[in-house]
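Q: What residues go here?
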């Protein structure tokens, strides 16, 4: 062989280089898989919550900016269930056991919470509805479950939930036969207390706007503002003598009671009509004080509007 000739390349070196490149590709692929798995594990809870919120899976309710649904004649009863996890010294109960509402009807329900300890606590409410198929149609406009919530030592508060049930419930083959939904909450001590909102924000004056929503779900089956139904017309009730609406068959006890309706007398009456006036015909009562106050605020506002309208009509005549 000539001294200037190049030696032949060692085939073993080429094989080794090929194997090295293949191993690097495998390592890179494993690295991508590992990173992907790490990200999925880190965000699995968040991704699961987003999936449930989008689909209503496992009875997860939906969020809505407002109620723009058309109210349906179809009704559904919503029941309420509450619980508190160990470690959170709160009492947490619904102010009403259930409400019956029309599909598409904006509705308010209230829940009472009391911190029974000597220190402030921050809680977080988990929630769902059953049957779970109804979750996609149960839509909340306002709820304490949207944020972490602070409740001061020995503080009590009444918390509203503003919701409606979408009329689509009645046309979906999987939900069209549902006539009762249970909304369940469990409060846990929060693991993310930073930025918690204070439940004291709900400790406000009686609200006529809330009262109108409550009246629609709790009172409107028997009462209207402009006509007698099962109960007498309540338009202009504040300032009116009890038992004085024409053509309504009041009990003798109410007619003879001498009651004039104002905030105090209405509150006593709504708390227990038959205890207030023996022999009264009204069978229903409103046990929760704040709910009564909101209803009365609504009736006061309507009575004021009615009085102004009557005064304007008199002046024009």
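A:
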């Amino acid at each position: 062989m000539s001294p200037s000739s190049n030696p032949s390349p060692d085939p073993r070196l080429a094989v080794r280089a090929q194997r090295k490149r293949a191993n690097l590709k495998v390592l890179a692929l494993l690295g991508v898989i590992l990173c992907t798995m790490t990200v999925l594990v880190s965000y699995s809870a968040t991704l699961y919550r987003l999936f449930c919120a989008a689909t209503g899976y496992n009875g997860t309710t939906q969020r809505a900016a407002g109620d723009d649904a058309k109210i349906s004649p179809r009704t559904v009863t919503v029941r309420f269930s509450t619980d508190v996890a160990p470690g959170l010294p709160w009492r947490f109960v619904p102010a009403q056991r259930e409400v019956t509402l029309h599909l598409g009807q904006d509705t308010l329900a209230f829940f009472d919470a009391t911190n029974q300890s000597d220190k402030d606590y921050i809680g977080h409410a988990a929630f769902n509805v059953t049957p779970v198929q109804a979750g996609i149609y149960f839509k909340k406009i306002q709820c304490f479950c949207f944020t972490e919530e602070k409740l001061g030592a020995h503080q009590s508060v009444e918390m509203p939930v503003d919701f409606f049930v979408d009329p689509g419930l009645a046309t979906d083959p999987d939900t069209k036969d549902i006539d009762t939904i249970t909304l369940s909450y469990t409060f846990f001590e929060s693991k993310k207390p930073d930025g918690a909102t204070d439940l004291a924000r709900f400790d406000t004056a009686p609200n006529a706007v809330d009262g109108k929503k409550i009246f629609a779900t709790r009172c409107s089956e028997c009462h209207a503002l402009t006509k007698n139904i099962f109960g007498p017309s309540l338009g202009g009730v504040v300032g009116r003598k009890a038992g004085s609406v024409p053509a309504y068959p009041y009990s003798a006890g109410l007619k003879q009671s001498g009651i004039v309706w104002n905030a105090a007398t209405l509150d006593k009456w709504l708390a227990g009509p038959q205890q207030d006036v023996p022999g009264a015909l009204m069978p229903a009562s409103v046990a929760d004080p704040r709910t009564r106050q909101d209803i009365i605020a609504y009736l006061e506002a309507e009575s004021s509007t009615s009085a102004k309208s009557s005064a304007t009509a008199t002046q024009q005549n």
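A: Context that may help when evaluating the design: Residues 116 and 154 are 5 Å apart (CA to CA). Residues 61-204 form a domain with the Ctag/Cox11 (Pfam 04442) fold (CATH 2.60.370.10).
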